[in-house]
Specification:
56% strand; 0% helix; single chain; mainly beta; eight-stranded antiparallel β-sheet; 146 residues; globular
Length: 146
């Protein structure tokens, strides 16, 4: 097991392989750039989702997400080579924080994943934004399952 720190950075090999909405000014890749000032925005209607894929199997202890106007969120994980066969690992109703970013922490206690799917089930407005996803974790040397 190799210690990586934040495994949800594009510089650590993480990529957004799916996002249900896209705006060229606010692309989903902004979620992984390590900056709170940049973001991905949805284009209305719910649910919305995005999938982060890692370069291999990672073990995640703590996940943090910075967002704006997200009401209900579900996080699922997959250990498959492709982003399929997801299992629920966290679900949360978020507090409304008028005029400031929501910072939510999820303790995942060694959750192993090759992909994480974030499903935004509802928002406090028609549009929500995801500014950053951070995951304290380590890369595993074991190959993902098929």
């Amino acid at each position: 097991m190799t210690k990586l720190g934040d495994v949800c950075l594009s510089s650590a090999g993480a990529t957004v392989v799916l996002a249900t909405s896209s705006d060229e000014q606010y692309p989903p890749e902004n979620i992984l750039d390590g900056k709170s000032e940049t973001f991905w925005t949805t284009t209305g209607m719910f649910p919305q989702e995005f999938i982060i894929s890692f370069s291999g199997l990672v073990k995640i202890n703590r996940l943090m997400m910075q967002s704006y106007l997200v009401r209900s969120l579900k996080i699922e994980k997959s250990i498959s080579k492709d982003p399929i066969n997801f299992e629920k690992c966290a679900e949360k109703e978020l507090e409304h924080s008028e005029g400031q970013l929501q910072t939510e922490e999820f303790m995942l206690s060694g959750c192993q994943a090759t992909h994480l799917r974030f499903i935004i089930e509802s928002g406090f407005d028609h549009f929500v934004s995801i500014h950053r996803v951070m995951a304290d974790g380590a890369m595993d040397n074991i190959s993902p399952t098929v």
